[in-house]
Amino acid sequence: MAALGLCGPARADCKKPGEKTLVKVNLKPDTEVADLVSWYANLTCTSVLMGAQVTGKKVTVLAPQPIPLAEVRRLFYDALDSVGLTAEQSGKFLQIMEAKKARPSGPR
Length: 108
Fold this sequence. Notes:
Layout: E1 4-7, E2 22-23, E3 31-32, H1 33-44, E4 47-51, E5 58-59, E6 67-68, H2 69-81, E7 85-90, E8 93-98
Parallel strand pairs: 4-8
Antiparallel strand pairs: 1-4, 2-6, 3-5, 7-8
Helix pairs in contact: 1-2
């Protein structure tokens, strides 16, 4: 049986920044994917569902200058892709899953 975790803001006061808002990406090298997902969920006010497939996977994200939120989204998906994962909308949640199990879709 797979363990599932839910992360993201449950707060009603969460305010998603605008697409052009500059974001400083300040993640340590070899960040656990679960920590990356939690950071992204809190930044974007997105509820995320993730399972055991993220356990033990690590990424390094280097962005020395602040970047627009739209670029943060692409960076997030690319970081997931680098470890064989992807994110797919599932109702009100963004579900993290193995890329090979995702439904085929167009560009993000």
